[in-house]
Amino acid sequence: MIYLDNSATTVAFSEVLETYQKTALRYFGNPSSLHGYGSEAEHLLRQARQSIAGILDIKANELIFTSGGTEGNNLAIKGVAYARRRRGNHIITTAVEHPSVLNTCRYLEKNGFEVTYLPVDNDGFVSLQDVKDASREETILVSIMHVNHETGAIQPVEKIGEWLKTREKIRFHVDHVQGAAKVPLHLHNSGIDLCTLSGHKFHGLKGTGMLYIREGVQIEPLLHGGGQEQNLRSGTENLPGIVAFAKALRLAYERYSEAKQALQTHKHELMQALRKREGMLINTPEEGSAPHIINVSISGTRPEIVIQALSKKDIHVSSKSACSARLQTASEVLDAQFGPGERAETGLRFSLGYNTTEVDIQQLLEALDEVVPEIRRVKEVKA
Amino acid sequence: MIFLTDIYLDHAATTPVRPEVWQEMKPFLDGTYQGNPSSIHRFGREARAAVDAARMTIAESVGAGTEEIIFTSGGTEADNLAVTGAARAREHEGRHVITTEVEHHAVLHACEQLEREGFDVTYLPVTADGTVRVETVQQALREDTILVTMMYANNETGIINPIAEIGECLRGHEALFHTDAVQAYGMLPIDVASLQVDMLTASAHKINGPKGAGFLYVKKETTLHPLIFGGEQERRLRPGTENVPAIVGFGAAVQSLQKERETRAKTYGQLVAHLLTTLASEDVPYEINGIEEKRLPSIINLHFPGTSTEPLLAQLDLEGVAVASGSACTAGSFQPSHVLKAMYGEEDPRVRASIRISVGFGNDEDQMETAAQAIANIAKRQRKILTEN
């Protein structure tokens, strides 16, 4: 089995599963309870928070646990928008964000906010100049992803953050879901006010995530209730998931830093090899992209057919965000990058993991050489 | 530290995962099945099938259709989705919401949020027996009432509200009816049609499932405003990659619950009865908060005259008996119970001298006896100290 869909979800590290199991079965108390079971749970919660804070070089009170990336992005964007609506109603984001950012912004547009969706160039990059030009007196929030989930393009969030430091009124949110542990992003003194992470994208568990909220930044909660997580995220803490999240983050930092060179090599080889093939266009920029994502458009095919054909050979890849994979429409990301047309409709995404091997890449290429001509032939006959 | 001899009597706060639930979850944790249900390759399809199976089990358990079950991250989220989601979706039809003073904070604070948004919320009182009366609901109903939200059984007292009768009384009124059944689900058979509810909340970790999963039943053709936006998951009412292992665990917990609900209710009722008998034989005065006839078998709230809740809890903890004062969800701080205040009034001694005992998986008669003796000794000692001073 060759799993090249690590941007959709990852296989949890075995150590992470052990941690989850141990916590779920032994420390099942509710951290808010006052008795021994509760205080042990609370202790583990605090430890996890401190460990994460140490890895990310932030303060322990600057992170809120969530149920995942989607909730984190919603909490950041809606949270800032509603907390700051008296100061302004303008939000800047990009056309290539994850649906959890785009659809939240679209919702806010229906509720009295104005949103600017910045374009990207042919390499998929947003420019600092565009951010500057779009910002105005009423701008309260800029939300730009770190690593694009479909193409792997790394947005210049550091540069944007640096500039936004001079814009006191604007809060800066970064969706770091795809970048976490794979592309370094320093939060401390970066101009970034909020940052989303998701556990199951770096070999943690589904249902876990966190939002970094810089000390002093005010947001409105999405969920009201028992007042957990500094009153910003009520609900009994998913303690086993949280402890597993902390473990996964630490291991992912280690393993991806070890695997970085190998990943770069695989990516480079795969891109080179694809480029040589007929009717294949690489959508991932050569420079300034994450080491684990390669996006390619294959003319004369439909991505879902290619995915199924590869799946039969036990090779698992995807086209776009899994969150919208079931809709048979063109990729919004590629559409923004290249305009509507075949290129945007035929994108395939290969996302590697720390344990992807040279052999995996070779087998992928061989399988593509087998299935693609056949798919093209059938399509032509039908046409 | 927790010791093996410790006695956990706080199953209303959270419950241990049952072994059979863990067994079902395991393949979704150990790498056997690890896909994203939205992925269209085989991995994704396996995960999708597992989520669908859990949804089927859960839908059947409340007499709902599978398309009427929305998975959430837990009870708090489901309550928030129901309360704010329904109110915001219907604000053009009216801005009046009815709830009670004794709801869980997830509902109460969601209602307070609605008030900040300009909704008018009526917080109904309860009687000293702990229940809300159907007539009280009837009287509070207005033409512009868009939502009535009332818990099925209270998390602090176990007292059961007449949800079916309230449902009946709301028939013919436009208001949507939501019930927080987080505590009731584990003990009472539930059928959404006979309760006549439009929405119902339940949570996995209260029924020996994992933390991080809950569901909201949403009756067909009920429109809600989502809290969270993103992908296409959960019919767009709750996007985000599904928490597959937790959902599978939830399904397994429900399956086991469906088989054993009656036996569990009976067993837990007997355990509570045993505790009360022991307390009586130890000659410690106590009173049950709320009406005995309308109580969940697993939860009991007891008043020990002449004692004080906080030291009572602390000393019981030292003795290895874990009980609670009320909802765990007040984030580790001790506050007098809003439920007991609503039942007896702010100044009643019950408000500051009561504890909640909730039994469940793993408890047995010996434990109840040991716990009752510890409670009796501590209560008597406290009573003595407090009366002497």
From TrEMBL, chain A:
Pfam families on file: Aminotran_5 (PF00266)
Entry's Gene3D superfamilies?
Aspartate Aminotransferase, domain 1, Type I PLP-dependent aspartate aminotransferase-like (Major domain)
**Would the keyword Metal-binding be found if you checked this record's keyword annotation?**
yes
**So which domain of life are we looking at?**
Bacteria
Q: Which cofactor does it need?
A: pyridoxal 5'-phosphate
Q: What are the recorded GO MF terms, alphabetically?
A: cysteine desulfurase activity; iron-sulfur cluster binding; metal ion binding
Keywords assigned = Iron, Iron-sulfur, Metal-binding, Pyridoxal phosphate
Q: Where in the numbering of this chain does the Aminotransferase class V domain appear? A: 2-364
Q: Which PANTHER family match?
A: CYSTEINE DESULFURASE ISCS 2-RELATED, CYSTEINE DESULFURYLASE FAMILY MEMBER
Give the record's family classification.
Belongs to the class-V pyridoxal-phosphate-dependent aminotransferase family. NifS/IscS subfamily.
Name the chain's protein. Cysteine desulfurase
Q: Read off the lineage from the record.
A: Bacteria, Bacillati, Bacillota, Bacilli, Bacillales
From TrEMBL, chain B:
The species is Natribacillus halophilus
For activity, the cofactor(s) needed are: pyridoxal 5'-phosphate
The family classification in the record reads: Belongs to the class-V pyridoxal-phosphate-dependent aminotransferase family. NifS/IscS subfamily.
Q: Which reaction does it catalyse?
A: (sulfur carrier)-H + L-cysteine = (sulfur carrier)-SH + L-alanine
- Superkingdom per UniProt: Bacteria
Task: Indicate whether Cell division appears among the record's keywords.
Answer: no
Entry's transmembrane regions: none
This one is known as cysteine desulfurase
Q: Which UniProt keywords apply?
A: Iron, Iron-sulfur, Metal-binding, Pyridoxal phosphate, Transferase
Q: What is any Pfam family matched here? A: Aminotran_5
Q: Which PANTHER family match?
A: CYSTEINE DESULFURASE (PTHR11601:SF34), CYSTEINE DESULFURYLASE FAMILY MEMBER (PTHR11601)
